[in-house]
Design a protein that fits this description.
203 residues, alpha+beta, RNA Polymerase Alpha Subunit, Chain A, domain 2, 6-stranded mixed β-barrel, 4-stranded mixed β-sheet, 4 helices, Large ribosomal subunit protein bL25
Length: 203
């Protein structure tokens, strides 16, 4: 999985006054959990753009004045009106410990059902996976080549090398539904077949 580096500074004061001052200065207060003790730090808001405003999943290297932490984004608080980032929680990761993270689904292949006029519906754009940090995939490939109209692709049908998908086996990734146009065409074809060949006019 790709990694993003964020440079910041450790925080000595974590009260409301200090937090408000950070935000006014264009910085985001953050904390790293998962280690021996929480690590409070701040970084410029623009440093999180490629981490937060993207559909992709990333691990994070947080550099704090000579110290380095490997982590993943755990939780984020956003202002309900301005959409500004108010606070971010990170979870520290270690090479020898498995972690669970959501990764995006990447559709590949050409579905027979879609080419025949069906509609592809993506039920899950992201899936939770569990693995060692080095084995985390950037995305999960969902091959729809074999899907005909009415077919579904389940999580059990996608390759999982060195990671585990943390969803029940009956979880649907995507499906090909019969479109209205295809359904109407099928109904008209059925009516025509039932009526039989048109009778010629009497002389």
């Amino acid at each position: 999985m790709k990694s993003i580096t964020i440079k910041g500074s450790e925080r000595e004061s974590v009260g409301k006054v200090a937090t408000k001052a950070l935000r006014n200065a264009g910085a985001v207060p953050c904390v790293i959990y998962g280690g021996d003790q929480p690590v409070h730090f701040s970084a410029e808001e623009k440093a999180f753009k490629s981490l937060v405003y993207t559909p992709n999943a990333h691990t994070v290297v947080i550099e704090l004045e000579g110290k380095s932490f490997n982590a993943i984004l755990q939780d984020i608080q956003v202002h309900p009106v301005s959409d500004r980032i108010l606070h971010i929680d990170f979870f520290q990761i270690f090479d020898e410990k498995e972690i669970t993270i959501e990764v995006p689904v990447k559709i590949i292949g050409n579905s027979k059902g879609v080419m025949a006029g069906g509609d592809l519906r993506l039920n899950n754009r992201k899936l939770k996976v569990r693995a060692l940090p080095k084995n985390l995939p950037d995305f999960i490939e969902a091959d729809i080549t074999g899907l005909d109209m009415g077919n579904k692709l389940y999580v059990t049908k996608v390759p999982t090398e060195n990671f585990k998908i943390m969803h029940p086996d009956n979880t649907v990734i995507c499906q090909v539904k019969i479109s209205r146009a295809a359904m109407k065409a099928a109904q008209e074809a059925a009516k025509a077949a039932k009526a039989g060949p048109a009778k010629g006019k009497k002389k």
